[in-house]
Amino acid sequence: MKVKIFFALLVSVFLCQNTFSQVRTEETKKTVKEQKGDTTVTHSVIVSESEDITPRHHMIVVNPLKFLLFYNISYYQMVSANIGIGAGVQSPTLAGVSGIGFNAEMRKKSCGL
């Protein structure tokens, strides 16, 4: 059991690294000066890095997998760069089952989102 937990934690560390994507663009530009007839050909390769910087300070989450058993909605608020707190409500969708449930949770962002 300890080996499985250790392996799961090790895999999650490697999967949760901040990811950057590289974009490679190749261009060929041909310029002809009509007055002299000179032709200039320019080849260039542009490599740039990009990072997802989408702000995620307020999130409303609806889990579609829970719709088989529950209607649900949650709201999360970022309180720091790595920690978010949230609350949610859910009610059963099954006939003959009634009730309502509330939940609250705190999430720590360990990987780049």
Task: Please explain how this structure is put together.
- The protein has 113 residues and is mainly beta.
- The chain has a domain at 58-108.
- Helices cover 12% and strands 49% of the residues.
- It has a 4-stranded antiparallel beta sheet, with no helix packed on it. Strands 1-2 form a two-stranded antiparallel ribbon.
- It is elongated.
- The two termini are 30 Å apart.
Gyration radius (Cα, Å) is 26 Å
User: Separation of termini?
Assistant: 30 Å
Shape descriptor reads elongated
Strand content: over 45%
Let me know the number of strands: 6
pLDDT average, as an integer? 76
Entry summary:
The chain is mainly β and 113 residues long. The protein has one helix at 2-15, and strands at residues 21-32, 39-50, 58-61, 70-78, 83-92, 101-108.
